[in-house]
Design a protein that fits this description.
Layout (H helix, E strand, L loop, with lengths): L3 H13 L6 H12 L7 H13 L3 H13 L4 H17 L3 H12 L8 H5 L1 H14 L3 H12 L7 H10 L8
């Protein structure tokens, strides 16, 4: 068994080189790293889920993400697991479940998140917008996406944020 810092460093280095490997080889390399950890280690389960997700196997990814979350995955990986699980479910034709997961994730008060987790708020909003669009809730999706974009613009922040909110109350024109 290796120390956590060394293991985390090797995981990060492998992800930095993902494009250098064929999908099956990459998954095998992540699985080998995961095998260095206890069987139900949530971080190792998450990394395996992410490897399956990133190499086109969302069904397997969902299984790993659920196991990692069930084993109390925490911190930044927990938030990433929720986002990636919701995205995989959306890609598997379950946008309704994706909306549920991401809506709950979005409702976590900022004071309960560390800085890295809070930084992923835009990702939560972006993937929630995709799931909302897939469920036919286009105005909500556009409002959420534009609201997330507004603070990033060099100008028009207030106007865009206002218009994003207005999408939720204005008639949709149909």
């Amino acid at each position: 068994m290796t120390n956590d810092h060394d293991w985390e460093h090797r995981v990060a280095a492998l992800w930095d080189r993902i494009d250098a490997y064929e999908p099956a080889d990459f998954r095998a390399r992540v699985a080998a790293l995961a095998a260095e950890r206890p069987d139900d280690d949530p971080a190792a389960l998450f990394e395996q889920g992410a490897a399956h997700d990133s190499t086109g196997q969302p069904e397997e990814a969902v299984r790993f993400y659920r196991r990692a979350l069930d084993r109390r995955l925490s911190g930044l990986r927990r938030r990433r697991a929720v986002i990636q699980l919701a995205s995989s479910l959306r890609n598997l034709g379950r946008p309704d479940r994706s909306v549920e997961l991401l809506t709950a994730e979005r409702a976590i008060p900022a004071e309960e998140l560390d800085a890295d987790e809070a930084a992923l708020s835009g990702a939560v909003d972006a993937f929630l917008a995709l799931a909302l669009a897939d469920t036919g809730r286009d105005r909500e999706a556009a409002s959420l996406a534009l609201g997330a974009l507004a603070p990033l613009l060099p100008r028009y922040n207030r106007s865009l944020a206002h218009y994003a909110r207005a999408l939720l109350t204005a008639p949709d024109g149909s």
